[in-house]
Write a structure and sequence with these properties.
Radius of gyration: 19 Å
Order of helices and strands: HHHEEEHEEHEHHHEHEHEEHH
Strand content: 15-25%
Helix content: 40-55%
Number of strands: 10
CATH architecture: 3-Layer(aba) Sandwich
Largest sheet: 6 strands, mixed
Number of domains: 1
Strand order of the largest sheet: 6-7-8-3-9-10
Shape: globular
Number of helices: 12
Structural class: alpha/beta
CATH topology: Rossmann fold
Bound molecules: adenosine-5'-diphosphate, magnesium ion
């Protein structure tokens, strides 16, 4: 968490001092993300039904649950891609501000990795990674390139710098997508089924990168069915069904001693499928 990079990132907080809500955001002890009675519907379909959740700084939290239970919607609300109907949603103590400028600042602070990697096919791996820092943060090209190389090193594919996404395996492309998100130096990383589109032999290499990230103290929310990863790398598992958080706790407790029938059935299905 307290890498020099990050400290620098936060230091030009002259801006924060001028911010009327700086007092709240300076509350470094509070959770990174906080949902209170969050409701979200699409028409008559209640997708998030009074969701209460806290994501502590530095924690890695897995969101699990059946298809259609509201997992992606929850992530999309957290990074402001969807607005909530009622309740409270705070990032670093501040309610999400949906005005254009605040929203782009929020998105720069939250990295997102999807099932589909969404890399730009006409750009090299390196150019995919430097694009955000270059255009979005005004980082000089030389510095952005240096960082991109470090990140490719970190995700284990430094030799792919000059290749195009189509020349990479799915697992390699997803690692580039992770590097691209990290290049923005986010405070929070959201992963939405990052390994669901991968061939089985490539899942491990992506999960290993995510595990290292979690161990390095990155705050992460991960929607996944990879329960081995949850147990090995995550602090908490949140089980959501039909828009409601049915159960949450430490992964080991969830797997071996889930209290609710729905959670036990889910675990059985996942483990024995
Ligand atoms: N943009 C949307 N418009 C209408 N319905 C949506 C939209 N996004 C999601 N939904 C519905 O919300 C429910 C939850 O979807 P989602 O959050 O994607 O679930 P999950 O990620 O757990 O599979 C589903 O019934 C889905 O059809
Ligand atoms: Mg989903």
């Amino acid at each position: 968490m307290n890498s020099p990079d990050e400290a620098n990132d936060r230091a030009p907080g002259g801006a924060a001092a001028a911010d009327p809500e700086a007092e709240q955001s300076a509350d470094a002890a509070g959770p990174m993300v906080e949902l209170r009675k969050v409701r979200k519907s699409f028409g008559d379909n209640v997708v998030l039904d009074d969701v209460d959740l806290e994501i502590a700084r530095g924690s890695a939290v897995v969101i699990a649950g059946p298809s259609g239970s509201g997992k992606s919607t929850m992530l999309r609300c957290i990074n402001g891609l969807e607005s909530i109907d009622s309740g409270e949603l705070r990032f670093e103590g501040r309610p999400i501000d949906y005005s254009g400028k605040a929203l782009s600042r929020l998105r720069a602070e939250i990295g997102m990795v999807f099932q589909q990697f969404n890399l730009f096919p006409h750009m090299t791996v390196r150019d995919n990674i430097v694009l955000g820092p270059l255009k979005g943060k005004g980082v000089p090209r030389e510095e952005a390139t240096r960082r991109a190389r470090q990140l490719l090193e970190r995700v284990g594919i430094p030799e792919k710098e000059n290749e195009f996404p189509a020349d990479l395996s799915g697992g390699q492309q997803q690692r580039v997508a992770i590097a691209r998100a990290l290049a923005m130096e986010p405070k929070l990383m959201l992963f939405d089924e990052p390994t669901s589109a991968l061939d089985p032999e490539m899942i491990r290499e992506v999960l290993d990168v995510m595990r290292d990230l979690a161990r390095g103290g990155m705050t992460m929310v991960v929607v996944t069915h990879e329960m081995g990863f949850a147990q090995e790398a995550c602090d908490q598992i949140v089980f959501i069904d039909d828009g409601e958080i049915v159960e949450q706790g430490r992964p080991a407790d969830f797997f071996h001693a889930a209290k609710s029938t729905r959670a036990r059935e889910f675990v059985d299905k996942i483990i024995h499928h």
